[in-house]
Amino acid sequence: MRIGKARAHTNIALIKYWGKANNQLKLPQNSSLSMTLDAFYTDTNFQLLEQSTTTESSFSLNNVVQEPASSRRVFDYIETLQDRYRLPHDKFKIQTTNHVPTSAGLASSSSAFAALAQAFVAAYQLDVDKQELSRLARLGSGSATRSIYGGFVEWQKGTDDQDSIAMPIDEQPTIDLCLLAVEINFASKGISSTAGMQQVVNTSPYYGVWRTEAERGVIQMKQAIKANDFTAIGTLAERSALAMHALNFTANPPFTYLEPETIHAIKLVEQLRIQGIECYFTIDAGPNVKILCQLRNVKEITERFKEELGNVNIIKASFGPGVINLD
Ligand code: PMV
Predict the structure, then answer these.
(1) What is the per-residue pLDDT across 9-68, written as a single tens digit (0 to 9) for each?
(2) pLDDT band at 182 (very low <50, low <70, confident <90, very high)
(3) Alphabetically, which GO biological process terms does the record hold (predicted)?
(4) Residues at CB less than 6 angstroms from ligand 1
(5) Strand runs (DSSP E) across 62-205, as ranges?
(6) How far is residue 11's CA from residue 154's CA, in Å, rounded to a whole number?
(7) Domains of the chain, with CATH numbers?
(8) Which of 9, 17, 210, 282 to mutate to test the pocket of ligand 1 (most atoms within 8 A of CB)?
């Protein structure tokens, strides 16, 4: 019985990926840059079933066997990987545990598909390097490409399956940089990231500007990382998040992930900054806000958020590692 076990951490994009150039290969329209987080991760066991078995493939998430409809994306993904290596469509059992509280407002798809890709290659004992692993993760979810590495990671958009890969920038950064995931709103997102991206790519007149600015943002962010410049990192991250959310307002029809509490949090970050407590925000395809700050300000920022936003749940994270085999 062959089984692969892997752990991958989630990542937060500091320069966002927003738009696909190829839906099937999940090639992005723009390069992006992220920070892998230590506090949130996914553990996955991928077990190949004996050929003689009558048991069907299954996928369980946090010990709950998923219905066929919710397993479809995962099953299709495994078939894609099997086809890629000309393997038979063996049956399998996937057991996944997400250590990513939904309340944190962090997408678990980045850690989920990175862990699944690693568990898959381990079960089949495929000789795959990290670059290939980042391609495999990308086929599951774009942001998973970056979770193969720890620390600061760039996803080079590339032009095809071969060169659209993640590259580590610094896997063990020493910069004082924390992320506070603030749970401000439970509203389930009305529009998936895939649908949101498609809408802006197809309809926003500003999409070309977004692409140019994102590439520039990646270059500038790499300079800021090299210079250990917290202020520049935070400023650039905030600008990228604002540009992504502004772009959504310019789609036709327009849409937004922002809720009233999100704006409240943005204003609070601005206020804190004016008061000398340096912090910045970033927001993904949902209403929750993540704060970038330095260790010495964590306590004060946490207290101010709890005061102003009604005892919200806040989880602190810092740099996490790349994907690993568990065993
Ligand atoms: O890869 P997806 O479909 O989870 O999309 C990720 C989109 C953002 O989180 C908003 C940006 C990013 O680069 O991770």
Answers:
(1) 999 999 999 999 999 999 999 999 999 999 999 999 999 998 888 889 999 999 999 998
(2) very high
(3) isopentenyl diphosphate biosynthetic process, mevalonate pathway
(4) 13, 16-17, 32, 107, 109, 141-143, 193-194, 284-285
(5) 64-65, 92-99, 152-156, 165-170, 178-183
(6) 11
(7) 3-173 (3.30.230.10), 178-317 (3.30.70.890)
(8) 17
Q: What is the pLDDT of residues 116-137, one digit of tens each?
A: 999 999 999 999 999 999 999 9
Contacts of 58 (CB under 8 A, 6+ apart): 65, 66, 71, 93, 94
From the alpha carbon of 155, which atom of ligand 1 is closest?
A: 13
Most distant CA pair in the chain, distance: 68
CB environment 162-172: b (16+ within 10 A), e (fewer): eebbbbbbbee
- Whether the CB-CB separation of 177 and 292 falls below 8 Å is answered with yes
- For residue 142, how far is its CA from the centre of ligand 1 (angstroms)? 7
